[in-house]
Amino acid sequence: MGKLILMRVLLLIPVLLGVSIFIFLLMRLIPGDPAIIIAGENATPEMLQQIREEFALDKPLAIQYVTFMKNLLSGKVVSIKTRRPVFEELFPRFLNTIHLTLFSMAIAIPLGITLGILAAAHRNSLLDNFVMVLALLGVSMPVFWLGIILILVFAVQLGWLPSGGKEGFANLILPSLTIAFALTSMIARMARAMMVETLSKEYIRTAVAYGLPRRKVVYKYALKNVMIPIVTVIGLQFGYLLGGAVLTESVFGWPGIGRYIVDGIFSRDYSVVQVGIMFLSMVFVLVNLGVDVLYMLIDPKVRRDVSKA
After folding, report:
1. How far apart are CA 122 and CA 116, in angstroms?
2. pTM of the model
3. Is 87-266 CATH 1.10.3720.10?
4. Chain mean pLDDT for the chain
5. Could you tell me the residue ranges of all domains in the chain?
6. Distance between CA atoms of 27 and 43, rounded to whole angstroms?
7. What pLDDT does 221 receive?
8. What distances in angstroms separate CA 152 from CA 137, 141, 144, 146, 211, one per listed residue?
């Protein structure tokens, strides 16, 4: 396990380097001059030149990249738009995204696994059909449309919850439910499919034939084998949500990291976009490392394979 963690941490270096070069060049291909966007179309040439010199925008691309990496390693990357350190703006927004992600997954994971297992245990029943229809709606329904519907019903018509912002816990409920609905559907579909396959295996049928209670067979023996693919889905979705559920954050005005990066793209704030995407790349690699560690904790076979490697 220690070897695996060390290898993944070392893998971060080329990943982040490649991401930094790619996003640096990609941002330069986007039309628009950051100096004009910041200073306005009526700005004098002297003002524009001052902004370009301040952020090395008048230098060759190679010098711009080297300057950016030096500032990044020293923690002195400054937003072109706000003139504030990017890390001071990024971390509070990332914490907001973590709050939204954790609350959404706290709803989706137990609900999705429970629904999937119940549907598989009562295959082809009314409950199974209901869960599958609900899951189909969840994976098919656009997130922004569901968010708007929830706002219209619970904020506009009923007035029970705020429509957006981040003033308190109540503001977290609607965006979390929006994300959780789609995530619950994905987990339920995966849990049902894997549970149906596991329950059809010989050792499960043998356990039932020997008189073990079906509930014990399902929850003690079958569930452990089902959890590995479910952990994969949860890990990938967790990394994706930490990247910022951009549509959800935009619909509900949630000040998360995804919305922060999108605003940086619109304002041609190279510093914000480059640092934000590199940071999210690092987070995604670490999340995948966490998923691999969970594999080893859940399945002894995976631990043996890693120890032999």
Report:
1. 10
2. 0.78
3. yes
4. 80
5. 87-266
6. 23
7. 66
8. 19, 16, 12, 10, 53
